[in-house]
Amino acid sequence: MSAAEGPLVVGVDSSTQSTKALVVDTATGRVVASGQAPHTVSTGDGRESDPRQWWQALCAALRQCGEAAHEAAAVSIAGQQHGLVTLDDRGEPVRPALLWNDVRSAPQARRLVEELGGPKFWAERVGSVPGASFTVTKWAWLTEHEPEAARRVAAVRLPHDYLTERLTGQGTTDRGDASGTGWWASSTEAYDEEILARVGLDPALLPRVVRPGEVAGTVRDGHEDLPFSRGTLVAAGTGDNAAAALGLGLRPGSPVLSLGTSGTVYTVSGNRPADPSGTVAGFADAHGAWLPLACTLNCTLAVDRIAALFGLDREAVEPGGSVTVLPYLDGERTPNLPEASGLLHGLRHDTTPGQVLQAAYDGAVHALLEALDLVLDQDADRTSPLLLIGGGARGTAWQQTVRRLSGRPVQVPQARELVALGAAAQAAGLLTGEDPAAVARRWKTADGPVLEPVERDEATLERISGVLSDATPLLERGPHHR
Question: Which of these is catalytic: 102, 174, 192, 240?
């Protein structure tokens, strides 16, 4: 037996590019073992992955955890949101999954919003105005462009649902991840039959929504490639952002800025969000409240790509200059410009590569901060620290850019892999009966240094806003417009 004070649990983060697994001691939050394995994502017009790779990566990551994973009493899987997983009658993928950052369904998103009552209808009923990231628009794209594949579909799942079902043999999801589909209504906390009928999706193909704190199932027989004992409890799991909120033990009103492949800002709220502008997605959280969230498609990878174009290290930023970069390399979700490409404005003879790189950081953070005030409730404390998480959170250039453009203190939690830790906290809650967020607070996952605020750089924010406003007609047309 591992030298642990309490039972062991496994938390999994199946993200866009890899799967990570942590074995955690429920008593202390100590990570006893960990593993990680990569995925492949297609390039070009679409962003797709073979779900079977996620399963293979999960098995590989758990094998790296060794005997500790075999001792675990419960497991929970968190995964990238929105992805459309289509399975045939044997449970095999009909085609590769359409991922959250596949924006080919932008025309279908616009059409759905128009045909079903406009943005106000969607915000009030579903909680979000669907863009090209949402699963409902991807299903509409599939039925339009690949009708033969759509006819073969016997089950529709989200990424975390697929992995959970491989463990238990039962089709389940949770309210947090379901709220990112566009066919789960936050107003009723149920699948919306009118929306499903409009896109031609039989509700019988969808997973059962497991309640917070409910067991989704147990690990079934026949998993020789996994180290779990037969009968290990399997929690509901959830989407990655809801899991990170659990992993932080997030309290209502505390703002989070996450820097990863995508950038997100969110908080926990007792008020059900309904933003008809579409900027704020009115997601549910994983334990009964709400998770108003705004997401950008371009964050750390886009900035790293610009650094690579200049042959620079990602930290080789320089101040000054008048250049503005809108790093919308994959189209953009916030602001809603799915056809956009990156834009550079204000280049001069004396502009340095380091200034262009800093401008890319500024452009990425500007989009997130513009959405932050809409995410927070009106009575939220605007001076409390921003919790900075994700792969970019420990980068000096990211930290300093967020401080300078927000004017707020910034806290960087010392705990890493917060999505997997949130999943582990959910699994621990099954064993202890605690609220998973309370488990995470007991584990002190949000503890970390606080960077004091600096004066907000209003001039840069205004310059970026001005360029964005002037360039929006061009960005809306996209790079292929003639």
Answer: 240
**How far is Cα 114 from Cα 129, in angstroms, rounded to an integer?**
11
Return d(Cα 398, Cα 401) in angstroms, integer: 5
| Contact by Cβ (8 Å): 293, 266 | yes
Nearest to residue 177, comparing CAs of 117, 113, 131, 241? 241
Rounded CA gap, 20 and 34, in Å? Answer: 7
Verify whether residue 240 is a known catalytic residue. yes
Query: Is residue 255 reached through a cis peptide bond, with omega within 30 degrees of 0 on the bond before it?
Result: no
Backbone angles phi, psi at 301, to 5 degrees: -65, -40
CB-CB contact of 8 with 2 (8 Å): yes
Q: Pairing state of beta strands 410-411 and 386-389?
A: parallel
Give the span between the Cα atoms of 323 and 467, in whole angstroms.
10
Show binding-site residues. Answer: 81-82
pLDDT in the model for residue 222: 67
**Orientation of helix 418-432 relative to helix 436-443, angle to 10°:** 120
Nearest to 183 by CA among 171, 167, 194, 172: 194
- Let me know if 124 is exposed, middle or buried by CB neighbors in 10 A (0-12, 13-18, 19+): middle
Measured torsion, CA atoms of residues 42, 43, 45, 46, in degrees rounded to the nearest 10: 20
* Distance from C-alpha of 403 to C-alpha of 114, rounded to nearest angstrom: 39
- How many helices and strands (H and E) does the chain possess? 16, 24
User: Residues forming the annotated binding site for substrate?
Assistant: 81-82
Q: Is 273 helix (H, G, I), strand (E, B) or coil?
A: coil
DSSP string covering 45-105: S--EE-HHHHHHHHHHHHHHHTHHHHT-SEEEEEE-SS-BEEE-TTS-BSSPEEPTT--TT
pTM: 0.89
How many Cα neighbours within 13 Å face the side chain of 60? 14
Tell me how far apart the alpha carbons of residues 277 and 221 are, in angstroms, rounded to a whole number.
48
Query: In the beta sheet, which residues pair with residue 326?
Result: 343
- Sole residue written with tokens 């996994």: 226
DSSP3 helix / strand / coil % (the chain, rounded to 5): 35, 20, 45
110-141 confidence digits (pLDDT tens): 999 999 999 999 999 999 999 999 999 999 99
Angle value at C-alpha 256, between 253 and 260, nearest 5 degrees: 160
pLDDT confidence bin for 2, thresholds 50/70/90: low
Is-contact 239 79, C-beta < 8 A?
A: yes
